[in-house]
Amino acid sequence: MSAEATDPATPEAAGRRRARPRLDVRGLRRIGRAALIGTAGRDGLPDALEHVAQVHRRHHPDAGLDILSKAYVLAESSHRGQMRKSGEPYITHPLAVTLILAELGAETTTLTASLLHDTVEDTEVTLDQVREQFGAEVSYLVDGVTKLEKVDYGAAAEPETFRKMLVATGNDVRVMSIKLADRLHNMRTLGVMRPEKQARIAKVTRDVLIPLAERLGVQALKTELEDLVFAILHPEEYATTRRLVDEHAGRPDPLAAIAARVRTTLDEAGIQARVLVRPRHFVSVHRVRMARGELTGADLGRLLVLVAEDADCYAVLGELHTCFTPVVSEFKDFIAAPKFNLYQSLHTAVTGESGQIAETLIRTHQMHRVAEAGVIALGNPYTPTDGPDAPEGERADPTRPGWLSRLLEWQRTTPDPDTFWTSLRDDLAQDLEITVFCAGGPPGGPADGTIGLPAGASCVDAAYARYGEAAHCCIGARVNGRLAALATVLHDGDSLHLLMAPDAPDTAAGPAPEWLDHARTPAARLAISRWLSRSAGQDTGEPAPQPPPPGPAASGHDTGAAAEITPAAVLAVADLPGASVRLAGCCTPVPPDNVTGFAVRGGTVTVHRALCPVVARMAATGRQPVGVRWRRAGRTNHGCRVTLLAEAFSRPHLLADLTEAIAAQGVAVVSAAVEPPHEQRVRHTYTLHLPNAAGLPSLMRAMREVPGVFDVLRAGRDRPAAALRP
Q1: What is the pLDDT of residues 581-600, one digit of tens each?
Q2: Among this protein's residues, is 132 annotated catalytic?
Q3: Domain at 572-714, CATH from 1.10.357.140, 3.40.50.450, 1.10.357.10, 3.30.70.1150
Q4: Which of 131, 179, 430, 468 could share a disulfide with 139, CB 3.0–4.6 Å?
Q5: Which one from 12, 122, 149, 299 is the annotated catalytic residue?
Q6: pTM of the full predicted structure?
């Protein structure tokens, strides 16, 4: 039950200077008085609901209000006698939440559910009663919000609480819209809580709810929540920022003068536009101050130009860049390439007569509504799934953001709430997203299409986003037509072709522990960790899968990456009781190499050559090595895998000659990759299966004797100066 009370000392004025939709304080007092009096207003509406109705009609002139009136009557009667700590009737809380959503343009169904969102949890009203009186859709939304309130926001409960929140959001983002408005009103009225409880609620709001608001595009809620959290968690910085804003409030506003010039310029050009000065919220001012040091009056806000059509946006841009001096580095086009949260706008900056720079946003009125209210501005995007075989209650959501679909997928396969919570926070902390065109794949796989990934994601992340668990069989990639390692970081607009092991049984392929170093997304990290745990026999109690028998030597097989790593239990043993052992794919150690090990997830020890660069990196981070030793010679006749790099001058038939030399040594080629020639030099990478590690020196000599080859190196060793790539 939300029972926080209003405290005049709280930073309620944190957003008053911002040009954002915000609950009118006078309106809140009005509905509070009306709730106490309980009189009926005009058109048969209760007085307490009249202000909500006026705001709602501004966005939806033809909206029917009878259902809102009916919902208010039920909510008021069911909450009657319940009081907030401020002494106000409890009904003021759902009214305030509904007013917040009405100001953002929410449709009638959302407002109806908002009025009722606490009734099932905190009163005698049942979900069946809500369904009977208001229909299945309102009942669905109320049930979604109710489920979020069933677990306390204590530290131990947070993971499961937000897991449920994400599930509810995935089914209908309007559930999260109501929850965000509910949290905003509670944050505004948090002052009577103990300081430690204020801090705890503020941290949860900062870590999860604010990023979710950002991803749903609800900037109006996000920015005010940021200011309220800022005031609670960083009171000194908040006070300093507020003082700076107050000091500038009594001075001439340079942005007002620039705005006047912009209006004149656009009028003369015949462009109908509305030009506003849009003050920054306190957190934004603080960030600018941290980045620039000294603040000017122009740093406290931005210009906002609103027009009717998309084409007008570019017309405004042309006039501004013609009549003012533009700051070219500040230009961004989010109309041609919208952000992942539906945001569209042109960003630029121009210099005024006094030399002050005015950051400027140019957008249509509809873009502005979506920029402020995100998914709330889209109305009701949900329609029942058509067809007689469609599951009951199934919904189609064409506006669901890609990140949300990904989170829903991996949360269903993550039974541990703590792991889910950590991964959720990591994912939400990533505020940029890229789009990659993904083509090709195994027979029967997904068709060509685009996938969304967080900035900094690698080919490993793309593989798991594309294929799920089937990505265990990925052995390489082509990025923009060129062979690339799975560790390659992708960029927005890249074309990606993932290379999968053909017809590989489930036990014959899988990720190496090193893949975790390249995985940025929770989906990839969790899937890799599960596979490693299963391969160590920890999930089912079964022994770890054994390596497949070596295949025949391949000629010209261009796969682009190293293949599956041998489990190595037959080759090496670690000084860690019960641990399984795996050979590292980065340096592929073989007897009698000097080796060391590091414990990774799933109770596995990864074995590296002592000179492998990864060993130095792990040691530098404080990772403790684990002693590893090779088994006695009589017990190491099971063969091994090794990765070799052949540096050569480019010539015809080089690949065939090298493959023939390898086959002559009785060695099988597991995979091979050839990089494009560079300055007449070329590098071949081979992953090979040797019958016996003792044959490695003779194999390397045989490869060096191939005409044109000037060096053969073990993978994982520092390159000499003569190497192909400097």
Answers
A1: 887 777 778 777 788 888 87
A2: no
A3: 3.30.70.1150
A4: 131
A5: 122
A6: 0.58
